[in-house]
Specification:
151 residues; five-stranded mixed sheet; 5 helices; 5 strands
């Protein structure tokens, strides 16, 4: 586990991930912050919503855009427990999120530092700052435990 306290947004994202797991969803949580204040939270919900796009990041981005009354989330930060996939990275780009903090890397489905590396592509319209590994141990253990219990 982490040797120092996690930043509050990552603690909240981990709480969202735990709530997703309790509902039978893959435990991934996300939080959008603007000017130090939490604007929105999200958790994985594709099974509950019967919607393959209901990833934690998408849920949080949708809620933040609604809360701010703007599809552009300029100056916002996204805190998420797992490296975003290509779909979520695309949404981050289109929302113009300034910074992305994530916990665990995702060698299979990640698209920030793994796979497609969406933000590194020349066609990428916006490149957020990326800070990986925040709450990595906690995030990874939540995922491992979730899938271990289903085997």
């Amino acid at each position: 586990m982490t040797r120092w306290p996690l930043p509050p947004p990552m603690t909240l994202a981990l709480q969202e991930a735990r709530e997703a797991a309790a509902l039978g969803e893959v435990p991934i949580g996300a939080v959008v912050v603007k000017d130090g204040a939490v604007i929105a939270t999200g958790r994985n919900a594709p099974r509950a919503h019967h919607d393959p796009t209901s990833h934690a990041e998408i849920e949080a981005i949708r809620a933040a855009a609604k809360a701010l009354g703007n599809e552009r989330l300029d100056g916002c930060e996204l805190w998420v427990t797992l490296e975003p996939c290509a779909m979520c990275a695309g949404a981050i780009v289109h929302a113009r999120i300034a910074r992305v903090y994530y916990g665990a890397s995702d060698p299979k489905g990640g698209a920030v530092e793994q796979g497609a590396r969406v933000f590194d592509q020349p066609q990428c319209l916006h490149r957020p700052e990326v800070y990986p590994g925040i709450g990595e141990a906690e995030s990874a253990e939540l995922l491992r435990g979730f899938f271990r219990a289903r085997r």
